[in-house]
Give the backbone structure.
Amino acid sequence: MWAMAMKEFRQMRRDRRTLAMMIVQPVLLLVVFGYAASFDVDQVKTVVVGPRAGQVAAALPQRLDVVQVSSSHGRQDAVDALRDGEAVVAVVTADAGQPQVLVDGADLFSARSVVTELRGRPELPAPEVLFNPGLKTSAIMVPGLMGVVLVFVGTIATALGVVRERQSGTLEQLAVMPFRPRDVLGGKLLPYLGVAVVDLAVIVAVGVLLFDVPFAGSPLVFALGALLFLFVTVGTGVLISTVSETQGQAIQLALLTMLPQILLSGLIFPLQAMAAGVRWIGYLLPLTYFVQVARGVMVRGAPFDALLFPLGMLAVLGLAVFGLSIVRFRRDLAPAGPRRDADSADQAQVEATTSRAGAR
Amino acid sequence: MSRPVWGCSGLAVRYGATVALEDVTFEVPAGTVAAVVGGDGAGKTTLLRALAGTVRSAAGSVRRPDERRLGYVSAGPGVWGDLTVDENLVFAGRAYGLGPDQLKRRVAGLLERTGLAWARDRLAGRLSGGERQKLAFAMAVAHEPDLLILDEPTTGVDPVSRAELWRLLAGAAAAGAAVVLSTTYLDEAERAATVLVLDRGRSLLAGTPDEVLAATPGLVVEAPARPEGIPSWRRGARWRAWSPGGSTPPGARPVAIDLEDAVIVAQLREDQRWAA
């Protein structure tokens, strides 16, 4: 048995990536996720509108962080502010009587904390929860979980598909065939994108029909967000495949990119509740922006222009990740000397002469 | 019209600080089979990859046809194991731009030639080693390339399948293709029109098998027991030895050498040179 254990230790020591995953990763994850694991929202963005906005704003509880006070705006403006995600609570004042308190039910944990606080203080007005009146968890979790499913399909399936080609030795065969790298990559990814789109349609249908998740906004805006997000996840898959020799390594790396996305994207723990030291990681993750788009469109019915920022961030992340993955993938498939354009004449000879300086 | 001659001249390939090939010159005229011979790490695969254009050369030049006129069988399986024989062939044909009718005719012809017609609906991953190599060959010639490159197509293949593969290779050359293959089997290399023997990335011997044999210096002798004082090696139950000066040791007799002897002698000379 000792001989077996020694052999195993030696192999483990050589496989540095797995060793790092076994020792460094758990510590890192625990520290990062420990700071992120909080449902307690201390500050809730609030807008106050109506004739007595200034007066009421000054008297609001500490938890309500007033970001805008406008005496010229009315209830509809307040609802729009919540729909567009500018605030979670809107207080609408009138010339006389108690103000109305509107709460965005799509921001579940903030909404729950505000509702609990207001209901416990009879002197304050009863809150009216919009978009997700029952404060149902499924209504906000399912749109976010769609993103997780897309990460699974986009990142893991793509990475495995490309690495399988390398592991089985057929990538070399493809490199010799008269494909341009973009043909290989495009042709390779198209089926996965197709499956992911079908998956998306199915999970939206299941979410709406089975879990009663509302779909208040524009399917087109949702589709745009989902496509941009797929772009990022598939690009991540390709990127992972370019640094993985085996399918096992690809799965390890894919999971490594998935865990932070699930825990730091605001899908489970609200971003506002996270320590600032880890919150910034959340803002680098594509799922963060997909969750914002999916919840915005489905639950709040947010219009396109209200989601410009998360859509733009998905586009930027997509370009960065996909660009990098193409560069690396091209290097994997890199032909040697100058290869002829695929459209030029047959039978020509290629004189591939390179200088010593051109050595890779 | 003169036949095109593919190959390389003064080719050098480096992987970082490692010299994989140095000053290798090699020619393969159309209609002939050329063999690249060498042990593990000699640079065979690198040379074939450089000819195919998937490895960047550090110096020298490579003459190869357009990539659509090139066929390549890698040292790996070279086929997609989770596609059927038919699907593999169709993929290869389409990749090289064959039209539907042409593709159908070629696939039928190739299945016939390779004897794989019975397995056309079988997954390539379920074929035997020899059958898989024949499929890889068929995929590489589906578009009737001008230059066909095969990396150790017969390694790990049973003798019957090896003979069949050679029949296919000879057929491709007879049809006008220049065929280059690497092999570790010297008996096989003797069937080629030209041979290049690589050692540690350098050209050890090159020419037709007859030229290579004729260029071997000294004398090779055979003896029932190991001759003393000169470099020797086993061939079957007997010993062979190389006498650089041409003298015959007692108890030994001169023999007609084959490619295996020539390569061993060249290797011995090279080792002596490195040692010096």
